[in-house]
Design brief:
HTH-like_dom, Transposase_8, disordered C terminus, 52% helix, 5-stranded mixed sheet, 406 residues, Transpos_IS3, alpha/beta, IS3 family transposase
Length: 406
Amino acid sequence: MSAPRKYPAELKERATRMALEARADPATRVGAYKRIGEQLGIHPEALRTWVRETEVDEGLRPGTTSTDAARIAELERENRELRRANTILKQASGFLRGGARPPVEVMCAFVEEHRDEHGVEPICRVLQIAPSTYYAHRTRQPSARALRDAGLAEKIRTVHEENYGVYGVRKVHAALNREGIPVARCTVERLMRAEGLRGISRAKGPRTTRPAPETARPADLVERRFTAEAPNRLWVADITYVRTFAGWVYAAFVLDVFARRIVGWQVSTSLYTELALDALQMGIWARTRDGADLAGLVHHSDRGVQYRAIRYTERLAEADAVASVGSRGDSYDNAMAEALNSLFKAELVRNRGPWRDINHLEIAVAEWVDWYNHRRLHGELGHVPPAEYEAAHAAPAQQPEPTKTN
């Protein structure tokens, strides 16, 4: 057994008192530390330090008293612990910001990741979790729920990434169900929150069409009733803008109201009539190529000069379509087109930007429109893509088999 390294308090007090008395007498002052140290079995330098501390405490020597030194040491210790706790909270902010207590699995994984940096007990103290819980979780086999959550989380990340990162809980849940994966919506919400995934938010931007002078104009045939019983009954059109490093780029869209399908689009660096006209030409070409009859189609827009230009109205007349124009300065009269612009801004422009120039943006718009029409789930359509919704409408209704009689 090794000898104790710390002197007893009583021995320290007695040796200090004897050294002070010896140093007070000129006859015994010389060699007092060495002599008393040898008599009591104490190192002379340790005795010298004790005497110096006692003299400082009694005000006989300048310096920091023992009480002050202990208080400073305690404050420094508390400061170190606070800095460490602050660091731990910053590192854990990813799963603590939700407000509700995180799952034990998440907190134990955090402890495992940062144990070498902070130690197990300090992290558990900050997260208010027992160290025994962490050690038990570390040796316990994953539960069936944990294994299923891990698989679902991977599928959720895949769905979210493949759809421009814009899907929220509702559409991720619908996409998983379409793939034949039975999962509760609350489970999707919990796992998306744990993975830090969320849907895109939309914000309204300014209008980009300039009102035409008050002249004879088409009537408002829609009156905010954006519904259609079949494709090619009602189209809505509008123009929006995108900032690029090379300057402003404008995008025109034509939307079929029945299935919310984009039938035509165009981008340009100018707001001339050709921008809107090219989008209309694309929509007419795409529909007539599939054998559709556009006679009686209602084309609705705002009062922008692009849509009331002679060439634009003539092209509508050639297709036997009827023009409809909303009231002045009222975006609600073209709300569905405005909503599409908002989606375009949120899901592509802000989500995938910044943009270099019109060429950079044009390629991205083509990819986004293809995804929007063929793969994006629309809540208003029962969480199916527009192309699939139109195909289901076009499919002939299955006739029941005739009843056989003997």
